[in-house]
Specification:
The chain is mainly beta and 903 residues long. 5% of the residues lie in helices and 47% in strands. Strands 3-4-5-26-25-29-23-24 form an eight-stranded antiparallel sheet, with helices on one face. Strands 54, 56, 57, 60, 63 and 65 form a six-stranded antiparallel sheet that branches. Strands 55, 58, 59, 61, 62 and 64 form a six-stranded antiparallel sheet that branches.
């Protein structure tokens, strides 16, 4: 296959002898010329289908990737369990009649199997303008597709003997095919005897149609130079004899055990035989003899044979999804790929002209789709026949923005910006010549923060929508209003709002909208240090990062932050908070940072974290347990590695390969009793050595009320080496003292094929911010009883009077917060200009805004069903919401219309 004018070496050797290749299950991309500004849908209107009457599809945006390939973003809206749910889908539609675009399958690194690589990595290596992840694969095997694969007209991998697995292909004359295929072939010796071929470049697996328990028993397989590993394959449960064939002549025959350490040469292939196949070699083959091979793909649905040489490309998938423009019955059990996940699929139009590469996002902006919803969506956008590809954590789409030179991540994967390494991917390639300049565009971020500086560049594209060099242009830049300040090619956010940035070069100009993000665009402000010592002269690093509603994280410029210091005098300079002096009798201080009104805080107190366990002198037993009898492993205190090589750590090894369903591997502390956390803890930090298994890391506590509390350490262990994890415990409702019973790894059933079933993790330096050492120390306790409509109330048994009686509005009670804080400690400050009240108590900083059901708690946006309001000039807050967020207990007595608040 030619990519950027080069031919892959692994395919040159194949062409020199035979066209060996295996059909693989991956995502395919097709591209065709783009004419005009939109994508016609072949007369198919976007509307919900009968199977999903409550669903709707709306086109949000579309942009050409190259001539013949258009990227379109859709919003899918449906109802789940009576609630509205939305998902985003990104679709590349390719015109197979466009001569300037081509789709093909890429695999691994250097075009070889057993060398997994990210989808973006394969796109960059091969010069693809877009790419999507492809076939399913066994995560514990070498790294080869389960299905078949044809690349550049060569069969690199054959379909496995697994029922109901469909494949997608395009013939050499440009016709798309979706079908279930089987492989048949044979090897013929010089003496005329022959033996059946079982496949090409396959990992070991369990066949579903034959009587053999293992794929390689009594079987003969071909391995070509597209297979990089010297194990062909590993864990085959057989002892082979191998035959090296070069230019159709047998040049070597191995002893029993095969060729040790030999890679397949470029000019030949290795015949790997076992059992009866090995006996055939002994009886019929000899060095120097010629060997003939023949093979064919067979349609299971039509009963017809397909010559692989008639296919331009092919990739394997899972179940069929759409047939004849309607949702199809699943061809295979889909319980293991259920749920609302990220999705990848392929399909084509009724007239067989257009191919659809379909991806569904599962991230902070999108809820994913079920397979049934995916079927509905594909029918809505015009898919006539379609199949499912590997999804979930594998779903990755990269595409080249207009005017840019390389493809970039189109949306966040289930793991954020991380791309999972996969065995193959479908690439979209431009075959167009160099064209004439068609247009200009501005390249740069469409959203920036106040005070943030961003660089913008002028890019060009030709009439084939491929990039044009614009380095000789010297544009001038301007902004449409004062929201953004322009200096050369650098813009700076000034205040929230949208501006139009315009670049002018000679008579040509182009514009783009840039939004300066305000408080309403954020979900969180994270400060580098959330606690600090309240001591004159102490310093702590306080970089602030904003998290947008799109899930992006951006460092906030210091100039965009306004700091307020409560209980001490201090300053922030160059990202460091310095305490100059502490106010008299103050036990807790607050450094509150605001970005356009959105707050986060550093809580300062007389003491900070307590090192609860560093595993240096463990006097209690540690043991491995599991919920599944087939899960094995060890848990022990041992010498650390890497950054923790000089200390002892708690190491947990696990092997879940023999188990099924949801599986746990526990490191249990002190038997069933656990180790005691003696006092209230607001935060927990723990060092975790990850194994990049994508499993779930958790801790289990049992509180003083006997309740089990589960604490998420990481939803996906997506890193190697040591990492410190900080967890907020303040919203867990834990009754202390409590016991930390175990730390553990979970492999959930949904999407289980995406995670490693064996690995090693470790834990060290468990710390808690404890009440006796933290900002919650010394807070008043007591009891307050109030009645609706009555200004009199009791606080710790004493009668008192408030200026405004509690009000019942809807199902909620409202009062001035002052009367709660007077008893239980804390402080409230009213900001009339912004209609905002800020409440501080212990380790909590809470912002509430009149009329807004969202509130900010310690830098995180949270939602509620109630909001503060103003009555007769007084601000009233929802009593239960505020009290419980501040750590107080609230009880309502319906008969007497009274509210009791306790701490």
């Amino acid at each position: 296959m030619k990519r950027n004018g080069k031919t892959s070496d692994s395919k040159q050797g194949m062409a020199a002898s035979k066209k060996w290749m295996v059909v693989s299950l991956a995502g395919l991309l097709f591209i065709a010329p783009v004419v005009g500004s939109g994508i016609p849908l072949n007369g198919h209107s976007i509307s919900s289908v009968a199977s999903a009457a409550s669903a709707s599809v709306v086109k949000l945006d579309e942009n050409p990737v190259t001539s013949g390939a258009m990227l379109t973003k859709y919003k899918f809206t449906t109802t789940r369990s009576g609630k509205k749910a939305t998902a985003l889908a990104d679709v590349i539609r390719i015109d197979l009649q466009n001569p300037y675009v081509k789709i093909d399958v890429m695999n691994g690194k250097g075009g070889q199997f057993t060398t997994k690589q990210s989808t973006g990595g394969m796109a960059k290596e091969n010069g693809a303008v877009a790419a999507v992840n492809g076939d399913y694969f066994n995560t514990t095997a070498e790294g080869a597709p389960i299905g078949g694969q044809v690349t550049d007209g060569q069969l690199l991998s054959t379909p496995s003997d697994i029922k109901g697995m469909y494949s997608f292909a395009v013939t050499t004359d440009g016709k798309p095919i979706i079908d279930e295929f089987a492989f048949s072939g044979s090897v013929t010796a010089e003496d005329g005897s022959s033996f059946p071929l079982a496949g090409i470049n396959k990992s070991s697996y369990n066949p579903e149609s034959s009587s053999a328990k293992y794929s390689h028993w009594d079987a003969m397989y071909i391995y070509t130079s597209a297979w990089k590993s010297t194990e062909r394959p590993k864990n085959s449960a057989t002892t082979p004899i191998e035959v090296l064939v070069q230019n159709d002549v047998i040049t070597q025959i191995s002893d029993v055990g095969g060729f040790v350490g030999m890679q397949v040469p470029q000019d030949g292939y290795i015949l790997r035989t076992h059992g009866k196949a090995a006996e055939f070699v002994k009886n019929h083959l000899a060095v120097g003899q010629k060997l003939k091979t023949s093979y064919m793909l067979n349609s299971k649905t039509m009963g017809q044979s397909v010559d692989p040489s008639k296919l331009q490309t092919m990739i394997g998938g899972h179940t069929i999804l759409v047939n004849n423009g309607k949702a199809a019955a699943f061809s295979r059990d889909v319980s293991g790929i259920g749920g609302y996940r990220a999705r990848t699929a392929l399909g084509y139009s009724k007239d067989e002209r257009y191919v659809y590469i379909v991806t569904v996002e599962k991230n902070d902006s999108s809820s994913g789709m079920s397979l049934g919803e995916l079927q509905s969506f594909m029918v809505d956008i015009g898919v006539w026949k379609g199949l499912n590809l590997d999804g979930g954590g594998s779903t990755t789409l990269v595409s080249r923005p207009l005017g840019e030179n390389e493809a970039t991540l189109t949306f966040h994967t289930e793991y954020g910006t991380q791309q999972r390494s996969v065995v193959n991917a479908v690439g979209v390639f431009s075959e167009a010549p160099k064209g004439e300049l068609k247009g200009l565009k501005i390249s740069g971020s469409s959203a920036i923060l106040i005070g943030q500086q961003a660089s913008f560049k002028l890019k060009g594209y030709d009439n084939y929508y491929n990039p044009v060099d614009t380095s000789s242009l010297t544009p001038t830049w301007k902004s449409s209003n004062g929201n953004i300040k322009v200096s050369g090619q650098t813009v700076t956010g000034v205040k929230p709002g949208t501006s139009t940035i315009t670049a002018v070069s000679g008579q040509a100009s182009t514009s783009m909208q840039v939004k300066v993000l305000g408080a309403s665009d954020l979900t969180a402000l994270n400060v580098g240090s959330q606690t600090a010592p309240l001591q004159a002269g102490s310093t702590v690093s306080v970089p602030v990062t904003a998290v947008t509603k799109d899930g992006d994280k951006v460092e906030v410029p210091e100039s965009a932050l306004k700091w307020e210091f409560v209980g001490f005098k201090g300053s922030v300079k160059n990202g460091k908070l310095t305490v100059a002096s502490v106010d008299p009798d103050v036990k807790v201080g607050y450094a509150i940072a605001r970005y356009n009104g959105f707050s986060t805080a550093v809580i300062l107190s007389a003491a900070g974290e307590d090192l609860w366990e560093n595993f240096e002198k463990v006097s209690y037993p540690v043991q491995f347990t599991s919920n599944h009898p087939q899960v094995t492993g060890t848990a022990a205190v041992t010498q650390g590695t890497g950054d923790h090589a000089g200390s002892k750590v708690l190491q947990l090894t696990y092997d879940m390969t023999a188990g099924t369903g949801k599986m746990y591997a526990y490191a249990e502390l002190n038997g069933s009793a656990g180790k005691t956390i003696s006092a209230s803890a607001t935060r927990m930090s723990i060092d975790v050595m990850g194994d990049n298994s994508l499993n779930w890391a958790r801790a289990e506590l049992k509180d003083n009320n006997g309740q089990t509390v589960y604490v998420d350490l990481a939803k996906a262990i997506d890193w190697d080496g040591w990492k410190t994890i900080d967890v907020d415990l303040s919203d867990k409702g834990i009754a202390f003292p409590a016991q930390l019973k175990r730390v553990y790894v979970v492999n959930v059933e949904e999407g289980q094929d995406e995670r490693a079933k064996s690995g090693t993790v470790a834990f060290d330096n468990i710390k808690f911010t404890m009440p006796s050492l933290s900002s919650d120390a010394g807070l008043p306790t007591g009891k307050v009883v109030m009645a609706i409509g009555q200004k009199s109330f009791t606080a710790n048994g004493q009668s008192k009077t408030m200026e405004v009686a509690p009000v019942m509005k809807g199902a909620s009670t409202y009062i001035p917060i002052k009367y709660v804080l007077d008893t239980f400690g804390g402080r409230a400050v009213w900001d009339a200009a912004n209609q905002r009240i800020t409440v501080t108590r212990g380790g909590k900083v809470m912002d509430l805004t009149v009329g807004d059901t969202d509130f900010i708690l310690n830098g995180k946006r949270k939602g509620a069903n109630v909001a503060p309001y103003i009555s007769n000039g007084r601000t009233l807050v929802p009593l239960r919401l505020v009290s419980e967020q501040l750590g107080l207990n609230v009880k309502w007595e319906q008969k007497t219309k009274t509210v009791t608040i306790e701490s």
